[in-house]
UniProtKB/TrEMBL annotation:
Lineage: Eukaryota, Metazoa, Chordata, Craniata, Vertebrata
Residue stretches of biased makeup (Basic and acidic residues): 37-48, 56-65
Gene3D superfamilies (alphabetical): Helix-loop-helix DNA-binding domain
Domain (BHLH) ranges: 50-108
Record's protein name: Max-like protein X
Subcellular location: Cytoplasm; Nucleus
Assembly and interaction partners: Efficient DNA binding requires dimerization with another bHLH protein. Binds DNA as a heterodimer with MAD1, MAD4, MNT, WBSCR14 and MLXIP. Can also bind DNA as a homodimer.
GO terms, molecular function: DNA-binding transcription factor activity, RNA polymerase II-specific; protein dimerization activity; RNA polymerase II cis-regulatory region sequence-specific DNA binding; RNA polymerase II-specific DNA-binding transcription factor binding
Extent of Polar residues compositional bias: 15-30
Signal peptide feature range: none
InterPro entries linked: bHLH_dom, HLH_DNA-bd_sf, Max-like/E-box_TFs
Protein's GO biological process: positive regulation of transcription by RNA polymerase II
Entry function: Transcription regulator. Forms a sequence-specific DNA-binding protein complex with MAD1, MAD4, MNT, WBSCR14 and MLXIP which recognizes the core sequence 5'-CACGTG-3'. The TCFL4-MAD1, TCFL4-MAD4, TCFL4-WBSCR14 complexes are transcriptional repressors. Plays a role in transcriptional activation of glycolytic target genes. Involved in glucose-responsive gene regulation.
Coiled-coil intervals, chain numbering: 105-132
Organism of this sequence: Ibidorhyncha struthersii
């Protein structure tokens, strides 16, 4: 009985020791897995912070670029600088700035088309004036080469007959070439007729023909 009691007492002591050891081990807060989790958590948060900061900076740059674009439009488009009494002294909204910009671009397109038409008309005028200039220069040169001609005075009636003969000849081609459906078509036909039938050589032939005809009638 004494030996049995001794063994039982030792077994109880060992059991309590194991229980204490297990409790102590479970209360220790530092293991390999926990160390790993503890060191990874700050890295994840730091990466998120960097991404958040980069996104914020990119968003700020985008907004600044958009704001600068609208500011540039307001500075370039004249109608954006004019006071709009419908909104008072309030700042123009982005929608109003865009609409005013569109209207101004359309206005510029119309002005460009109008100027191109005016340039085309002026070019035709210049061409007609050049033709007249060349014609007058040839008349002056012909007179200088034959200074004795024209000394004899001619009557105003003869001058009028020469003018009438030239105009009658020109009117025939003019009447056959001109269309009066609209003013625009009339203008185009007139310039086309001038370029075709008022060339220096053509006018010279007309004048020579009229002079020969009058000469045969007078003499």
């Amino acid at each position: 009985p004494a030996l049995f009691m001794e063994n039982a007492r030792k077994g109880s002591i060992v059991s309590r020791a194991n229980s204490i050891g297990s409790t102590s081990a479970s209360s220790v807060p530092n293991t390999d897995d926990e160390d790993s989790d503890y060191h990874q958590e700050p890295y994840k948060e730091s990466y998120k912070d960097r991404r958040r900061r980069a996104h914020t900076q990119a968003e700020r740059k985008r907004r600044d670029a958009i704001k600068k674009g609208y500011d540039d439009l307001q500075a370039i488009v004249p109608t954006c600088e004019q006071q709009d009494f419908s909104i008072g002294s309030q700042k123009l909204s982005k929608a109003i700035v865009l609409q005013k910009t569109i209207d101004y671009i359309q206005f510029l397109h119309k002005e460009k088309k109008k100027q191109e038409e005016e340039v085309s008309t002026l070019r035709k005028d210049v061409m007609a004036l050049k033709i007249m200039k060349v014609n007058y220069e040839q008349i002056v040169k012909a007179h200088q080469d034959n200074p004795t001609e024209g000394k004899d005075q001619v009557s105003d009636e003869v001058k009028f007959n020469v003018f009438q003969g030239i105009m009658d000849s020109l009117f025939q081609s003019f009447n056959a070439s001109i269309s009066v459906t609209s003013f625009q078509e009339l203008s185009a036909c007139v310039f086309s007729w001038i370029e075709e039938h008022c060339k220096p050589q053509t006018l010279r032939d007309v004048v020579i023909g009229v002079l020969h005809q009058l000469k045969s009638q007078l003499y």
